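Justification of computing resources. Each target in the renewal requires a structure prediction run like the one illustrated here; the chain below, 443 residues long, is used simply to show the kind of job we budget for.
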Amino acid sequence: MSELRRRLERYLGPANRARPTEARDEKVARLRAELARLFPSGGGELPPPPSYRRHAPCAARVVPAAPSPGPVSIEEVVPGARVETVAGPVFLARSRVRIEPRPDRTVMAPEEWRLLGGHAAAGPVAFERILFLDTETTGLSGGTGTLAFLIGWGWFETEGELTIEQAFLDGPQDEPAALALLAERSASFDAHVTFNGRTFDLPLLETRYAMARRRAPFSGHLGLDLLPASRRLWGAFFEEFRLGALEEGVLGRGRDADVPGSEIPGIYFRYLRDRDARPLSPVFEHNARDIASMAALLDTALDTLAGQGPERLVDRFALGLLWERHGDFARAREWYARALSQGAPGDRAARAAARLSLLHKRREEWGRAIDLWEDLFELPEWRAFAGEEIAKFLEHREGSFARAVERVDAVLASLGTRDAATREDFLHRRERLLRRISHDRII
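Resulting structure tokens:
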């Protein structure tokens, strides 16, 4: 203890040593004088600290969070049940749709497969042996990471009634069972019909079967893709070839409410997260509608080929174009003429007249061709086409160069500023005609 006291005294000095209070008192006096100058009413005292009143917090409007629905199984939303397969259970929905194909249609002839662009058929294919196939996937670009989480197929089990089955993956672990079920069903059919399946659905399914070390069950089927088939038939009249657009333009019906295909992958991913199957109901309906529309579209296409469909200019022109592409010009002329016989105005009739005039030209039926060209010349949007054909006829068949120049001048007078390339072609033709006129005068 005494040692600690000696160290403290050495550091602080002796305890009884006098403190320099005079200097301290002088500093305090100067501070008081400065305070008195700054705060004269306070008597040199510091002002009281400001009073900060803590405001009561505003009463916030509390919105109660929506209660989480919790898991809602697919069985509670879509009619169906889990079925057993050789690879395990999978959920299967089953429904029926009335399509009503023609009563006398029981088979598809080999020529019909050929005309629609399908695989070459060795013989007739029974209509009930055709499987309509469509998938909903986890992505729209394909690839090995893309799953077909909903595989739908349909067939005519009874006359006019399409049976539709849809295998659903409750998770990726159900894929082997879904593929096994599709393989089992496909074994009962000879052909399959898809819409854009040649470039999307079938390659995707073949990839999934290959990854499962299995052979795709439809590789030995006859196949028909209705997307290119529709373009063959109605490509001259429609700019958009989505299945929904063809429903409106060809089948004459639309979809009041339908989930966009681009949103379907996200709906499935949300289901995998929250297990609420209610948003999947429109996806099942979308898939079933696609399958039913494929069956109806094939039926309409076959009606069109047979000339037994509705008396529409679009179908008559489609047949004319189809037979022309296949080299049957007699049938093509017949259907173009039937299209014009309706007397329907507008661009569609003009297209039929233009195609028919070229077929008459091919057969050197000049009188009929000239009559059609003169009619088309009266239509501003067809004046360049008709004027060129008439000018060619006058130059090469009649040798009437002056009349050909008159026709070229009439076309040039009607061309707009946006038709620069067409104008250049007609100016070149005019110069050549004038040279021939000059040459004939010299001779």
